[in-house]
Amino acid sequence: MPEARVIRLHRPDGGATDSERRRAPEAVEPAEAAEDQVTPRWYGDLADLLAFARRRLCGDYGVDEFGFDPDLTDHVLFPLLRPLYRSWFRVETIGLHHVPAEGGALVVANHSGTLPLDALMTAVAVREAHPAGRHLRMLGADLLFRIPLLGSLARKSGQTLACAPDAERLLTSGELVGVWPEGFKGIGKLYRDRYKLQRFGRGGFVSAALRTQATIIPCAIVGAEEIYPMIGDIKPLARLFSTPYFPVTPFFPLLGPLGMIPLPSKWYIEFGEPVRTDAYAPDSAEDPMLVFNLTDQIRETIQQTLYRLLIQRRNPFLG
Amino acid sequence: MPPSTVLVTGASRFVGGQLAARLAADSTIDRILAVDAVPPRQELLRRMGRAEFVRADLRNPLIAKVISTARVDTVVHASITANPRGSGGPGRNGRSAMKEMNVIGTMQLLAACQKSSTVTRLVVKSTGAVYGASALDQAVFTERDEPNGIPPSGYAKDAVEIEGYIRGFARRRQDVDVTVLRFTNIIGPRIDTVLGRYFSLPVVPTVLGYDPRVQLLHEEDALAVLERATRAPLPGVFNVGGDGVLLLSQAIRRVGRIPVPIPELAVATVGWLLRSAQLVDYSPEQIRFLNFGRVLDTTRLRTEFGFVPRWTTAQAFDDYLRGRALRPTIDPEWITTAERCLLGLASRLR
Question: Which of A227, A303, B151, B169 is in Cβ range 3.0-4.6 Å of B110 for a Cys bridge?
Answer without folding.
Answer: B169
